[in-house]
Amino acid sequence: MSHRQILQALTGLLAALFTAMLSTTIVANALPTIMGELHGTQTDFAWVVTAALLANAVSTPIWGKLADLFSKKLLVQLSIVVFVAGSVLAGFSHNMELLLTARVIQGLGMGGLTALAQAIIGSIIPPRERGRYSGYMGAVMAVATAGGPLLGGFIVDSPLGWRWTFFLCVPLAVVALVLLQITLRLEHVRRPARIDWLGSILLTAGISLLLIWVSFAGKAGYYEWWSWETAAMVGGSVVLLALLVFVESKVPEPIIPLKIISQRTTALAIIASVAVGIAMFGSTTFLGQYFQLARGFTPTEAGLLMLPMIAGNLLGSVGSGLLITRFGKWKRYLIIGTLLVILGTGLAGIIDHETEMVLVSLFIFILGVGMGLLMQNLVLAVQNTVKVTEVGSASASVAFFRTVGGAIGVSVLGAVLSSSVSNRVTRELTDAGIPTEGGGTTATLDIAELPAQVQTFFRIAYAEGTADIFRIAAAVAVIALVAVLFIKEQALRRTLDIKPTSASPVEPGLTGGSEMLQTGAMAAVPAARTAETEASRQAANAGNAGDGQTPGASPKQ
């Protein structure tokens, strides 16, 4: 496939990914308004994000396994349909319960788009050339992430209202569906499908139980961190996940292939992805809340203030992709990325309600560059070590653990923020002689209706609480740095699949001989070419002139 053919094939895929990313970011600056109208709490705020991330996480390995068994094109179209259904339901939500249900459905669709986008790219582009196209994907994600908060803020401030932050994604998804049908051409080799349903159930139950425990532990009206409920939930989660490992070691088609995630590069990339997920989702989720509640900006203004982080993300993603394609080295960008994430989150840990906005912009720009250097390149490192028939499962495994880390990060850091705000506001109100209803009732998101003095208490508390979660995110990002340092850099292969034998004179291709890229073929032409006679070279050139093949390449390709 030529560069033009690959771009054409990716058009619909990138459009679908853009829609999914936009649906996530467009809601970010609308959430404080949504919580105020639906009477949500800080815990509800965190769960609106966590519900989608959790559904995304637990469905990602399922979609990844399905991608190795069924048509990737059909699956990505199905995931768009699921996503549209969730978006419509979210737009019509009139209470928190219905909104959370809709977010779960949206998360299921986003899980498919996330896993399948990586799997399709891994199926049609060799790792050495994949950097530039991963850069394009990063650029699309950056534009969606940049435009989402700004567009969402504008919609919330307009007569349309917050519900259109969900409805707007529906026509975009339909356009993506049509483009996929027209532009994406993938050959699928059918093989018997064995879905690990038991593993899927154990995975969902184990992770969900853990997140539910984290979300409500220590909150008024629920249970303490050290209690029989904690023992039951944590113990139950450990048992379920242990059973998951046992089941995955026995079934023929595991939902999380242990032989892949136990490889050194994949295992370390997963550790780094979990830590990065916690730092990224956990810290950036609450940025819009910081701008609106701690600084008093409107949703539209909050969207504009997110642009430095998105610009950094775009720079890191596209720049590293082009450099990796040119020079073939990728580990250095992982190391630089983790260092910048630690630096960015650490600096953001010193902000308060009066920090100069220029400094805040600089801090989140540094964080954005680090994220751009890390996200796609961790997946690239893993895809370079597996066969093309396993690229779906491998890509999905990394995305799964990163999203689980994000869900845990949002849940844990949301609980930290809620507790921090409650304690600080309660203390300030008590010192001022203003009666309170207890710490659990003071972490409100609807502060516009409060008296001016009380609003000031809340703004200070939200600013200091946001700084707390950035400092925690910086500490967690150190784990990612340690994991990245131990990853062994392997040269990016120029072929789609791993060579059967290093000395084979046959040019390697995909399993079954289909979907071979010319770039891989040209790179694999053996040195034995020098032994050919002049006559045979001329014959090969003449035979290939009509179909545009590289001289000397196999006429069967």
From TrEMBL:
Region described as Disordered: spans on this chain: 522-557
Topology in membrane: Multi-pass membrane protein
PANTHER family referenced in this protein's UniProt entry, alphabetically: COMD, MAJOR FACILITATOR SUPERFAMILY
InterPro entries: EmrB-like, MFS, MFS_dom, MFS_trans_sf
Name the record gives this protein: MFS transporter
PROSITE patterns, alphabetized: MFS (PS50850)
GO cellular component: plasma membrane
Top-level lineage group: Bacteria
Compartments, record wording: Cell membrane
Major facilitator superfamily (MFS) profile domain span: 9-492
Family per similarity comment: Belongs to the major facilitator superfamily. TCR/Tet family.
Pfam families recorded: MFS_1 (PF07690)
Transmembrane segment boundaries: 46-67, 74-92, 104-124, 136-156, 162-183, 195-216, 228-247, 268-291, 303-324, 333-351, 357-382, 394-417, 469-487
An MF annotation (GO) of this entry: transmembrane transporter activity
Keywords: Cell membrane, Membrane, Transmembrane, Transmembrane helix, Transport
